[in-house]
Amino acid sequence: MHANQLAELGSWVAINAGTLIYGENEQPMMVATNYWTASKIRINRWITALKMFEQDFNSPIKNHDPWPAMAILIQEILFSEMLTRVWAATVTTHDWYHNSDEMHGLAHSVHISHIEAKNRAIRVMLHGRSTNEKMFDQLNSSRRRMERWTDLFLGQLPSSEQAALFAFDRNRVRDFINENQETAGQEFVTRQKVLMLSFAADMLRDKIDYSANPEINREIAAGILSCFPADRFDSYGLPKSVRSVWLEKSQTDTQMLVDHLFEFDNKSLSKPTPSPPPPYTQVKRNISL
Predict the structure, then answer these.
(1) Where are the domains of the chain?
(2) Which of 30 and 227 is assigned the larger pLDDT?
(3) Confidence (pTM)
(4) DSSP label of 227
């Protein structure tokens, strides 16, 4: 799964965050743990690769250009940061609304680690800038656009104070929230659909075809989708690039339900059958005695 698909998922999560935040269903701790585990594996891979690229720039080898491989990695870090921030803001708002400490701790930990990896990636970019100005400018342009898009979609969340905690520019997030408050009804729905379509189109700019960690990205997306009720996947248009993950999730949920039913049936069959009550005539005779 490409990082731009994670970014599109981030825009969808922001639009549909209210369903999770105000929902009555408690989110299983396993969801938060799986998200944390997959994200940490990916971050560790990023750090390991960035160290290798640092060595490449410190000790350059003739006819070896680290930029093509490094650009794949850095674009994944930049694009997936949107989902990381939006998800952290969503679960933090969820826990704040429900007065609980259920999910936001692990999501916030991933958020901090992602920022550290991004800062390291930018330092490596600056270190090797002179060797490929064009690639540096392209990635830096992507970074600026993603930061603005992230703040825009954080501005779609219900709580401005909670969302602003994960913004690049808190005032910018509050401005977007104020714009939302000036629209209502069908105009508001149309505006959000236009935002998602515009963002999806912008994601095609400067997109690199390859992904650094497609399997881990897929695990992260599946974990987040598992927190939302199925009826959300038909509203506000779940990105086509993410639909296959949702279909896999639906199949998994169905299989788990079947397994639970079989387990319930097996337990029912293993229980001893209670003796039938005595006939009415026998009960009446015992009472008369």
Answers:
(1) 3-288
(2) 227
(3) 0.80
(4) T
